[in-house]
Amino acid sequence: MSRRNIALLLSSAMLACALGTGLGATVVMADDAGSASSGDAELVVGLPQDLDNSLDPYQITAAGTREVLFNVYEGLVKPDTDGNFVDAVASEHEISEDGLTYTFTLRDGVVFHNGDEVTIDDVLYSFETCAATTTNTAVAGALSDIQDITADGNKVVITLPSANSSFLSTVSSVAIVPASYKDQATAPVGTGPFRFDSYSPQDKAVFVRNDDYYGEKPALAKVTCKIYDDANALFTALNSGALDMAFHLTVDQVKNLSNGYNVLEGEMNLVQALYLNNAKAPFDDERVRQALCYAVDVDMLLDLTEDGHGAKLGSSIYPSFGKYFDDSLVDAYPYDPEKAASLLKEAGAEGLSFTIKVPGNYTPHVDTANVLVEMFAAVGINAQIQKVEWNTWLSDVYQGRDFEATVIGFDAAYLSPDALLQRWVSDDGSNMISYNNADYDAAIAKAQSTTDDEEQVAAYKEAEKILSDTAANVYLQDLADFVVLNPAFTGYEFYPLYAVDFSKITPAA
User: Fold this and answer.
1) Lower CB density within 10 Å: C or N end of the chain?
2) Which residues pair with 482 in a beta bridge?
3) Which of 449, 401, 463, 454 is nearest to 429 (CA)?
4) What is the mean pLDDT of the chain?
5) pLDDT at position 38, please?
6) What does the DSSP assignment read for 324-350?
7) Are 292 and 376 in contact (CB under 8 A)?
8) Distance (Å, rounded) from C-alpha 123 to C-alpha 106?
């Protein structure tokens, strides 16, 4: 295997849309591009996937839906760009010295998008409904541990049986919604800076400024999110000026952009890996999974797919989690094709052949899969790529567990290690790879139960190491996040989790 051969294959597999040779060309403004005039500015955004079938905040499963509806829904607190939790629907909050009691004071005059004023009853309803219906098992587990939740005038008092240093993260994930409203799935109502206006599946979603917002009003009057199930079509629209903004672009797309739009670089904050169905032979054999790890040159993969951008990973957590991230694991499986071949022979899996199902609309994951196929071929593994539509991936791979392997990235729905690590607990409903390890389950349980910060960090890192040692998946990278923005707009900021905040974007002076 040579770097040049893989690079040539990757180049041919990437977008066939080299519309220019670099940045700096004259800005192209199409008729339907956003207006940047003050007061009525409209931003037109390209989305690389459709939204979930349900827009109910507790039923959202796709990170792409959650990051857009970040503008519609809010909790009592919400994260800022530095990863701190700031008051939102609550005007203030207090945590008792023993860490058992959380008191939130409801902000005066907060109005839902349907015109109803937010009440304490709405807050209690939201916590109860989220606990009972959320698809996020980590959040459900944290809420089920609440010992008591009561109203005291304009305050909500939550009592825990034991201190939980991540509980404020859980609170931020509970969207406050009106108790009397029943159409969240199709016409969501929240308290955020933008109101939901309309949604046409496989076409577009429209959001308008919430003029009753309690905080600083957005400068944008309207955000139209156009949906593309084809990466080439999205890039062509962006480069023609028909879009003002697109995010999660690849290095190759950025290099081929020729319309003079500004390119911003941050971190995507996800765990990209080759996820393996541990319940299906031969991936139920740890040696086979380890062989795949040794067969991948992650450094080369980053060079080829990200031009050296991005960050290597060794387990199911990314660097933005700071003290919880164990960088000692990123080189746990150095590239060693001979070791890979030996493990395959030992496991009786020589001549291994399998299919990698990839959502075809996500160019970064398709590009990564193409590189993996070539690397595996060098050790006699025949891997084939099957591209599927996003909704098919959700129903068949994620929910139905009908796959052998897939390349995807898992994000953190909220800023707690549980958001990334809880899903691999043996009986967790989100455990799509059917990972089953009693030691891992025990490490996560210990991390969640201890009140000592040092012990908690150690327990989470123990869990991460177990995932690495058992090669639960082939861990690859946290992708760089390239956002492209029409220079008629400014103000975009990155968050340490999947979120696109339209409220910070303003027309350029």
Assistant:
1) C
2) 249, 265
3) 401
4) 89
5) 52
6) G--GGGTTSS---HHHHHHHHHHTT-T
7) yes
8) 9
